[in-house]
């Protein structure tokens, strides 16, 4: 089955919210539709620096717009490509089902091929980090490095995450003054994303089932790879991930950011941008 909105009204509401946030994109951009075997994929290019290109993947129910608060800094010295993931809400058009992780890796490989660069730095947030690692376990072609911020694939995601998600959604409804007291980061960014997030909840994704990376898969990664993990993550136990990775693969490194949760990019945006720029 293909991902789709619940109805036309839900679709219209989502794309109205999308358009509103797109107007906040802080740097000039060109929108591309990259052909893949699973459908055309919308990619937004910004920046014209001489550095190796950076490709940005969002988390689940996110889109390329997830990166709007950070793209100006990232695009200062590098071409930056922000992707609307196939099978998720956004301007990519899914034409074939995504049944396995191999399908997702094939889709992402098609995107990178379509961009036409010999090498890129692949950066993913949450599910986007999982997708970046999934590709890296299969091939190093076109990859200069991988940076995964709070990626899935290291523990089963279940009730603990769902309960946290409800609490996080409630926080997004709070006034800015209250948000500033109870969490770090700019509350205006959460409020900007709020209409898009709520509209995305009406999208019915049909994606491969959860997969946990095996030791053999992690050993197979053959490009410099860095995981940025939250101390208070609710999708894995971050220190256990670090301990597991250390003896498996010298190319894969992980760090734990103190006093942070799965919304790491919202809580500590300057740190996340600094990590990316230090590694690309």
What keywords describe this structure?
10 strands; single chain; Rossmann fold; 11 helices; 280 residues; alpha/beta; 8-stranded mixed beta sheet
- Proportion of helical residues: 25-40%
CATH topology: Rossmann fold
The shape, in one word, is: globular
> How much β-strand is present in the residues?
15-25%
Describe it for me?
It contains 11 helices and 10 strands. The longest helix is centred in the first third of the chain and has 15 residues, at 8-22. The protein has a single domain (4-279), classed as 3-Layer(aba) Sandwich (Rossmann fold), CATH 3.40.50. An 8-stranded mixed sheet has the order 2-3-5-4-6-7-9-10, with helices on both faces. A two-stranded antiparallel ribbon has the order 1-8. Helix 1 packs antiparallel against helix 7 (187-200). It is 38% helix and 18% strand. The chain is of the alpha/beta class and 280 residues long.
Layout of secondary structure:
Elements: E1 4-5, H1 8-22, E2 29-34, E3 41-46, E4 54-57, H2 71-74, E5 80-83, H3 101-115, E6 120-125, H4 127-136, E7 143-149, H5 159-172, H6 176-182, H7 187-200, E8 203-204, H8 215-219, E9 225-230, H9 238-245, E10 252-257, H10 264-267, H11 269-279
Helix pairs in contact: 1-7, 3-4
Summarize the structure.
This protein has 280 residues and is an alpha/beta fold. 38% of the residues lie in helices and 18% in strands.
């Amino acid at each position: 089955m293909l991902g789709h909105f619940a109805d036309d009204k839900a679709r219209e509401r989502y794309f109205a919210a999308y358009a509103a946030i797109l107007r906040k994109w802080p740097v000039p951009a060109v929108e591309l539709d990259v052909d893949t075997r699973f459908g055309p994929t919308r990619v937004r290019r910004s920046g014209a620096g001489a550095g190796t290109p950076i490709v940005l993947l969002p988390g689940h129910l996110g889109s390329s717009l997830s990166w709007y608060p950070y793209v100006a800094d990232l695009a200062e010295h590098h071409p930056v490509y922000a992707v609307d993931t196939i099978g998720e809400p956004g301007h990519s058009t899914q034409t074939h089902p995504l049944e396995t992780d191999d399908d997702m890796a094939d889709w992402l490989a098609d995107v990178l091929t379509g961009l036409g660069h010999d090498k890129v730095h692949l950066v993913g947030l949450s599910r986007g980090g999982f997708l970046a690692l999934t590709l890296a376990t299969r091939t190093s072609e076109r990859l200069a490095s991988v940076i995964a911020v709070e990626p899935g694939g290291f523990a089963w995601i279940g009730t603990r995450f769902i309960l946290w998600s409800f609490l996080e959604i409630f926080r997004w409804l709070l006034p800015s003054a209250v948000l500033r007291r109870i969490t770090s980061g700019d509350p205006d960014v959460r409020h900007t994303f709020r209409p898009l997030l709520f509209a995305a909840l009406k999208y019915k994704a049909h994606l491969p089932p959860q997969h946990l990376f095996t030791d053999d898969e992690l050993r197979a990664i053959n490009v410099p790879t860095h995981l940025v993990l939250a101390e208070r993550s609710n999708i894995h136990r971050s220190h256990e991930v670090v301990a597991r990775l250390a003896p498996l693969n010298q190319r894969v490194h992980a760090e734990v950011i103190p006093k942070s949760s799965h919304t790491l990019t919202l809580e500590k945006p300057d740190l996340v941008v600094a990590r990316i720029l230090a590694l690309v």
